[in-house]
Amino acid sequence: MTSTVLPTHHRTVKVRDHEIAYREAGPADAPVLLLLHGFPTSSHMFRDLIPRLADSYRLIAPDHLGFGLSAAPSAADFDYTFAELAALTAEFTEALGLDRFALYIQDYGSPIGLRLALAHPERITAIISQNGNAYEEGLGTEAWAPVRALIEERTPETEEPVRAIRSLDGIRWQYETGVPAEYRDLLDPGAWHHDAALMAREGQDDIQLGLIADYGSNFALYPAFQEYFRTSRVPLLAVWGEGDQVFVPAGAEAFRRDLPDAEIHLLPTGHFALETHAPAIAALIGDFLARRVPLRP
Fold this sequence. Notes:
Elements: E1 9-15, E2 18-25, E3 32-36, H1 50-53, E4 58-62, H2 82-95, E5 101-105, H3 109-119, E6 124-129, H4 141-152, H5 156-163, H6 168-176, H7 189-199, H8 204-213, H9 216-232, E7 236-241, H10 250-253, H11 255-258, E8 263-267, H12 274-292
Parallel strand pairs: 3-4, 3-5, 5-6, 6-7, 7-8
Antiparallel strand pairs: 1-2, 2-4
Helix pairs in contact: 2-3, 3-9, 4-5, 6-7
């Protein structure tokens, strides 16, 4: 007996005259799940998750401007800040006619998605956070030391260690660190080579250094994010790679402080949990959304 696997479409849309690439799958009238990727990847990170949920949900995964196959205007031509990426994401949803959706947030996708939620809380039906942080205690001390130094003062000396984060070795570290030996052979080396090739394009140095230097603006919004959780009581599922050294498990547990009904699952993997645990994460999401966000009116 075989099951139907719905196709994933690879599309583009113009937002502020910038081509935004995105993946889409699922019925046009199904509840929407907006998938927001992190650094240094793209919608490519959702390639194994999308087909597992597309029978019940409309999944839409954009590449942020400057990432993946979306346009990457120079840092001189676009202000690469998290505020601007969040505003552009809101305009992307409007261009596609999305007025209600659940959010899947990971890494950079977390502050982008949560800024969107602050601006348009009425649009958000639920949040799935997969190593998507909103608390100081979720920041791994060692991993964040060079970034904090850059945020404090941007100089050639503070930029150099941060450049290493988007090198092939630095990206591979993010994929492999915290993944137990029994799951290591589930990691696809093509994933970090894919990300590294896109990160090596002309102009990426200024784009990525600018964004990382701006990350402190997200720390400043953590209290606002937490107030949003308390006042909205948004249904939240955290599916977290417990071996992540960038966003550590304390960040997942912290959601319960503001959302007592948050559902927290720590998985035996690392920062890019979908690389090893896509089936488990898809099952958790399907169960969570079915209970907390009805499929049909």
